[in-house]
Specification:
Elements: H1 2-31, H2 36-70
Length: 71
C-alpha cells in the first residue's frame, strides 16, 4: 500500500507544480501591463490549466488517503 501513497504524493506534487506555473504566468501577464481583451485572452487559456492542475492535485490527495486507509 506504500506504493499507492507514493503515487498519490507524486500526482499531488505535479498538480501543485501546475498551480505554481499558473500563478507565475498570471503574475507575468499582470507585470507586462496587458489590459482588456489581451489580458482576458491570456487568462482564459490559463483557466483550463489551472482547473486541470487542481483536479490532478485533488486526485493525488484522494489516492494518498486511500493508500493510508488501506495500509
Amino acid at each position: 500500500m506504500a506504493g499507492i501513497v507514493w503515487i498519490g504524493a507524486l500526482l499531488t506534487a505535479i498538480g501543485l507544480a501546475g498551480l505554481v506555473y499558473c500563478i507565475a504566468i498570471a503574475a507575468q501577464a499582470r507585470r507586462s501591463g496587458l489590459e482588456g481583451a489581451a489580458m482576458e485572452a491570456r487568462l482564459r487559456r490559463l483557466v483550463a490549466v489551472n482547473l486541470g492542475a487542481l483536479a490532478l492535485s485533488a486526485i493525488g490527495l484522494m489516492t494518498v488517503v486511500l493508500g493510508v486507509i488501506l495500509g
